[in-house]
Amino acid sequence: MNDETQKSDTLTAKVLSSIGAVDAAAWDACAGQECTDSNPFVRHAFYSALEDSKSVCAEAGWQPQHIVIEDAGGKVLACAAAYLKGHSYGEYVFDHVWANAYQRAGGRYYPKLQCAVPFTPVTSPRLMVRGDVDEVTRAELQTTLLGTMVELARQRKVSSVHVTFPTEAEQNLMTEAGFLPRIGEQYHWKNEGYTTFDDFLAAMSSRHRKNIRKERAKANSCGVRIETLVGADIKPIHWDAFYRFYIGTSDRKWGQAYLTRAFFDLLSQRMAGAVVLVMGFEDERPVCGAINLRGGNTLFGRNWGAIVDYPFLHFECCYYRAIDYAIEHKLAWVEAGAQGQHKIQRGYLPRATYSAHWIADPRFKEAVARFLDDEREAVASRIEALEDWGPFKKEQQD
Q: DSSP class of residue 128?
């Protein structure tokens, strides 16, 4: 159902309350074949698994407000996944301080409009345009998507629009459109043409190389058999176990599990070839697991959980087995999720991430802009310092 429609002479902007209201092929054509192959999170199948499983819905604080731009013949030219949100959970670009400050000053921060992949801190296109248009038209359509977001925010009388984990080029376009730019950092592993894990270790300093070997030895001597399951090898019994791990980890760390059990079944049904599940067993009993999604050149680490606590088992399943998989399949990158400076000493170096923010209240916008000016400088300095702290031999890091 169309929540809202805006028309110009040649284009129609629609706001849709469900990803199911968009034809999957039309959506994926905007995401681009290259992008959907390399980044599974922009696929219609991923968004639909979230919504159809009720992991994402208005009751969970994520009310879909997807934007599509159509030509006069009804052909979808551009699209963006967006949500009205009543909280700031599941985003990984933290604005709780902004919300608290605005509300203490008498404002109403929620609801806000969020353009993102829910629960997924992965950089990928947010302003998605068909690949068969020229660059001038692409920029015009992306600007139309941004304008529609801002107009929707004004009509809904929300405080702000937040576009999280876009590409750097998209952030530049948003900055030109009056959004406030923000940067963060994550820790990613880069494949420098390694053919074995030992090749990777050889690029490290002796101290770090020895440390990783000790960690792997301890993790693999604790009596847990670790298997890497892909696609059809993953059965409902595996998802049953993994969901128990996931719920337990969520209860301990965040107090809220974002994903429902049904999501994992739908993920296997709709994106089987992209799912890589590293699971540990004591005899035949599953005791730990780490879920990854594979793109064309990247393995994306997502969630981890366990019902046992053995030294370095987490590092082995989440970081080292991911590197093993990437080397074996000649993938260029492993993205191991948000946060965690401990990843640096295990070969995952800092990379910048991006977001952009439109604030309705001019005085509040001015205050946020000052904060972001200082924060960007601090984050850029931190990334530079952390790169120097890396575990590789100096010539390798250079």
A: E
Which pair of tokens denotes residue 276?
Answer: 């890589």
Domains of the chain by start residue, with CATH: 2-185+352-388 (3.40.630.30), 192-331 (3.40.630.30)
| CA–CA distance, 244 with 264 (Å, rounded to integer) | 12
The pLDDT of 199-218, averaged and rounded, is 97
**pTM for this model (two decimals):** 0.94
Measured between alpha carbons, how far is 99 from 162 in angstroms, rounded to an integer?
Answer: 13
Tokens of 363: 């005085």
Predicted confidence band of residue 6 (pLDDT cuts 50, 70, 90): low
Alpha helices in 177-272 (DSSP H): 197-202, 206-219, 236-253, 261-270
Cα distance between residue 208 and residue 193, in whole Å: 20
Sheet of strand 66-70: strand arrangement: 2-7, 12-16, 66-70, 76-80, 128-129
Got the DSSP string for 15-83? EES-GGGS-HHHHHHHH-HHHHHH-GGGSHHHHHHHHHTTSSSGGGTEEE-EEEEE-TT--EEEEE-EE
Q: Token pair of 119, please?
A: 């629960």
pLDDT digits (tens, 9 = 90+) for 209-260: 999 999 999 999 999 999 999 989 999 999 999 999 999 887 665 557 899 9
